[in-house]
Amino acid sequence: MTVSARSTRRRRAVLLVAAAGLTGGLLTAPLAQAATATDGTKTVATSAKQAKAYKTFDLAQRLLKPASRAEGRAAQAEAAAAGRSVTMVLRDLQLQKADLPADLRAQAERFAGRPVKAVAEDSARARIHYTPGQSPAGYINQVKNTIDAVHNTYVARGYRAPKPDGTRGGNAKIDIYIDTLAPGLYGYCTTDQPISANATRFDVWAYCVLDNDYAGFPSNTPIENMQVTAAHEYFHAVQFAYDIAEDGWFMEATAAWAEDEIFDSVNDNYQYLRRSPLVMPRYPMDKFGGLHEYGGWIYFRWLSERYGSDIVRQMWNVADSSQGPRKDRYSTQAITRVLKTKKLTFPKAFALFADANRRPKRVYSEAVALNYPTAKPYKVATLGKKSNKLYKARLKHLTSATWRFVPKSGKKLKVTFSLGAKPTGPAAVVTVYGKNGSVKSKVVKLNGKGVGAAKVAFKKTSVAYVEVTAVNASTRFKNCFRKRTPFTCSGKPVDDNVLQKVRVRVG
Question: What are phi and psi of 336, to 5 degrees?
Answer without folding.
Answer: -60, -45
